[in-house]
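Following the same procedure, sequence and fold were stored together, as reproduced here.

>
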Amino acid sequence: MQIERYFQSRELQKRVQSRGQIAHQGLFITISKVADLLGFTEMQIRDIEKRGLLGPKSPTGYYHRRYGPDEIDRLALIKELIEEGYSLNKIPPNFYELWLNIQSYLYDVALSYAGEDRTYAESLAEALQHHGVKVFYDQFEKTALWGKNLYTYLSDLYQNKAKYCIMFLSKNYATKVWTNHEREAAQARAFKEHEEYILPIRLDGTAVPGMLPTISYLRWPPETAETISDIIRAKLVVS
């Protein structure tokens, strides 16, 4: 399994967080304590350091080296990779940067659609969720959305909380107040990005403000929820 795809696993994220809970208390601890907490030997940790996968820094005031939040999180992730079958020489030097890049977004994709097109959005959301993709689909988030100021919450979400925004473009999408709000928020993010952020799916040929005809689209049909899900998952791995 490619390491980037493995890093997208929600279960992995939960396990790493659980292993590294001590890190989030802001503590600096000794190598023996780290080894005991994470199931390493001290020799294994020193070998990891020699390979350039870890560089502990002692904070001011400590004579012996100490391991802080960043090092503990790295070791927790390395432990998971080892248990998954990765040998140390197969873990890339930039593994932690890859991990942080994937973790930097609450969602892999956020779906923006008109209510009349919910059937399309729901079938894609379910296909993505089935394959472990972190997807924002409002019907999955009823508890989180309840009581929130949706105008500000959704503006922030479509600008900052997903790696990609999937837009279902249609005559319904072009005329709705809320979809226009979501589109404008997503376009504000896209304006600042050097890579594509908005991934449009055309349900019909309606022109939508701000969506240039030169942008590459997927069309549904002939695409289906499963084929689009496959394309999205491939794009997440490549990115």
About this structure: The mean pLDDT is 88. Strands lie at 107-112, 135-136, 162-169, 198-202, 218-219. Residues 69-84 form the longest helix (16 residues). The chain is about 50% helix and 10% strand.
